[in-house]
Structure prediction request, 190 residues.
Amino acid sequence: MLHAPCFMEVRAKLNNLRRSPRKVRLVASALRGLDVGEAENQLKFLVKGSVPGFEKLLKSAIANAENNFGFSKDNLYIRDIVVGEGTRMKRWLPRAYGRASLILKKTSGIEMILAEKVEGKDRKKIEKAPVIKDVKPEEIRKKAEKSGEEAKEEKKEAIKEREEKEFFDEKKKTGGAKGFFRKVFRRKSM
Prediction:
């Protein structure tokens, strides 16, 4: 039962709640049409398994309304709640004579629609995020090539320094050796 949109609406969805849709619709019908504050109070005292999911969904919808659209929490009501069937998990139960019977573990999908009671009342202005400037692919390539070339040069310098250090270390080791040891411990590149 969706209404024609006359005011600004805020939607929030909860997918794959592990309760059957039939049981979830009982809570949804209790909340439909209530103010947001009243709905929070109702959820505190309802004794149903799907209440924690609804609390989470309602908080999410309120946060969406306040942060994305600048709505006031006092000016919101639950316009509609749509409960649909989610995916079904199939499980098997062993029965007599080697048979197996199917068990369907149902899930629900809930969509909550909040609307303003009085349009524009206590609405805050939302600051727009800074616009991200488009960067041309050519500029990105040039930067990558420059950084790549610099990195290659640094690696070459580090390798040269390491080789020179190793060369001098080996020279020190074999410097005092004579004859046979000098030939054995000498580098081939010398």
The mean pLDDT is 84. Residues 137 and 143 are 10 Å apart (CA to CA).
